[in-house]
Amino acid sequence: MEKRPFVSLEQIQEMAEKFPTPFHLYDEKGIRENARKLHQAFAWNPGFKEYFAVKATPNPFILKILKEEGCGTDCSSATELMLSEGCGFSGKEIMFSSNDTPPEEFAMAHKLGAVINLDDITHIACLEETLGAIPETVSCRFNPGGVYTISNGIMDNPGDAKYGMTEAQLIEAYKILKEKGAKHFGIHAFLVSNTVTNDYYPMLARTLFELAVRVKKETGISAEFINLSGGVGIAYRPEQEPNDILAIGEGVRRVYEEVLVPEGMGDVAICTECGRFMLGPYGCLVTKAIHEKHTYKEYIGVDACAANLMRPAMYGAYHHITVAGKEEAVCDHKYDIVGSLCENNDKFAVDRMLPEIAMGDYLVIHDTGAHGFAMGYNYNGRLRSAELLLKEDGSVELIRRAETPKDYFATFDFCDLLKKY
Ligand SMILES: *Cc1c(COP(=O)(O)O)cnc(C)c1O
Known about the structure:
Helices cover 29% and strands 22% of the residues. By secondary structure, it is an alpha/beta fold. The strands form 3 sheets. Strands 1, 12, 13, 14, 15, 16, 17, 18 and 19 form a 9-stranded mixed β-sheet that branches. Strands 2-3-4-5-6-9-10-11 form an 8-stranded parallel beta barrel, surrounded by 5 helices. Strands 7-8 form a two-stranded antiparallel ribbon. The longest helix has 20 residues, at 200-219. It is globular, with a radius of gyration of 23 Å.
């Protein structure tokens, strides 16, 4: 599918007068429409709840939009819990799916009334010791091990992943939790990341639903909610077919009818913890071409760098790039699009065919709405950019200011050397 930015050159030029590039920009309309579609896809399940994975886009303005659309949050750290609380999420609207959890974060999650999702059987003791008791509602994370294959070659290696418990541990964990007073139980698993197929959730649902049936038979515990977690992907590449969330919801419904309903488990609530799917396509990184370099290759240097978007540098991830205003131009120039870090992996694109780029052109790097800004860092003393929201009425709101040297030096505030900055 042809990939078009949700923002025009004229809009970018207007924004850039007030907010210098680079900046991350989010599309409120796209976020809301997509969230509504997800809810439509699972409307057949009365208990359905999406807990947005805060780590994907930890911005209170984004969280508030999602809250208005009926989402909760999925957290895995103290600051993510704080963000959730600050945005008005409380109690069962918060899922705490962490791993290697510091005990004080269990305490914090519990104080907020969050649903705690245990990554391991050994965490039961830690939880009990920290809270003084086991919460009434608790969930356990499953890892089936081995290799998990879905369709058209998409697979991942849960056997290599640090998350979750084996089936035997999971069953043992439920028994212990019940004995210690837990009353309401959930099952969770996250097996494959960024799946671009409508088959992942239905397949995972089958794995978890069948597991829930076995758990019920062995322990008498009937899971009240089954959490399909994240992993629903987005079409980063133009040749990919985006997921059809309505088909995905329908696929899960069919498995639900087939596996759970006959076992008298037709009241199980489905949960999701989508991050990428909720925000990925509805954010972009806007950056300006500031240098061109002609050596053994043709380079375009932009004012953003991997510190603003780590995915290409970190795992060679593809992010589509559009030269704003040149949407119709032929892509007859081959470029490496690079940032300024003193690291040769700081390349947003390698050997990318694009229209001829002039200095001052704005480049839109697509699909940075999730795991984009959030993975930013300060290497080379680079500062994090601003985040802007393109609102439904077409206006633009600053939803996070750009970092300044003062922010960068803030952890030296006890020392006088850098005071003047
Ligand atoms: C990262 C994460 C998610 C979100 O994953 P996406 O791939 O962004 O959908 C959900 N749940 C847990 C526990 C995670 O760690």
